[in-house]
# Entry
Amino acid sequence: MVNSKFHTLYFEATRNCNFSCIYCSTGSSKSKKCTDADYQAIVDHIFVPAKNLGTKFIDFSGGEFLLRNDSLKLLQTAINMGFSVGIVSNGTTLNNEKLQQLKDIAGEELIISLGINSFDSDNIVTRDNHYTNTIKLIEKISGFGFKINISVTIGEFNKKSFADTIKKISDMSLAFNRIPFSIRNCNALDLMITPDSMKNYFHPVLRNYFNGQISYVPFFLPPDSYNTITKSNIYNDELPLNPSIGCWVGSYYSINPEGEVSPCPLFGDQISGGNVFKENLKDILFESELFKKILNRKNFKGKCGNCKYTLTCGGCRVMAYFLNGDPYAEDPICFIDKLSNEEIEAIEKETIKSFKNYNRMIKIRNLLINKDS
# Structure
């Protein structure tokens, strides 16, 4: 069971990619060639200190992580050190030979995350790939027994297709996570989620599916309900850690290809607590002004600082930064102030029910992992 802050590291190991998605979060393009940090520097400055401070899971991403010549070596080293691992991939390098190599290294515990934003022709606009290619890849990967996760970036571009997208993913019995579109490396403010879109399109779907990663906001779960369901005390930790819900800042941290450590990859090029190749990772996470302030939700402003659900939700720090210019500001896409007390109570009941199912799923998964280990 996860019992510490910073249990999950999202590590962007390269900016190099063989796609040129026009809205790419990392600004990657097949026309750009970037110099990656070398293997030993990653082991010494990221893997070793991350292991020592209690990180359990590393999600390797890019760019396209598997384009690194040492990608398999990095995975093998991380596994040998006791990390659980996942990779985020566009899938183009995942031929049978590569999949077998991955299976030889990681067995069937490797999580492979693929991206689908919609099951229609619009997917190619934001993903530079037709969704049918990803469907074929899912079938191939399934034959090797890997766990598959679908990452869905959400914004104004797919609000009307979102319900259908998540239903299709659920019908395939796949896990999913949602990624709010951000302008980290593109100037497309009009594609970011609005409060009305969150209220009317995204939130009603997210709160009814517990097989996704429960990392969306607003999250209408009372702290006392969290304690009762998980048999823990969120008031002691001041963050929901076991399991993580709402905004994952504090459970989650990111390191970009240049070594900048951020509370979330979606503003990983703008907000940094320090550079891991110049400073100790533990000092950055526990002593930097950024991390100490953003982990204390009493520092949040506006409705996020005074909300019933602050401890279980936290608001989206990325939306606060890009839309309000302040990572500690209230979440500008939260719609709680547009709801009546009766509407809040109804959503809260739905959230409690969904979270009970999610928590049960997590406990069963952990029991199976502990049984096999």
Observations:
- The mean pLDDT is 95.
- The two ends are 13 Å apart (CA to CA).
- The beta strands are 8-12, 57-61, 84-88, 111-115, 147-154, 175-180, 252-255, 260-262, 274-275.
- The CA atoms of residues 293 and 299 lie 7 Å apart.
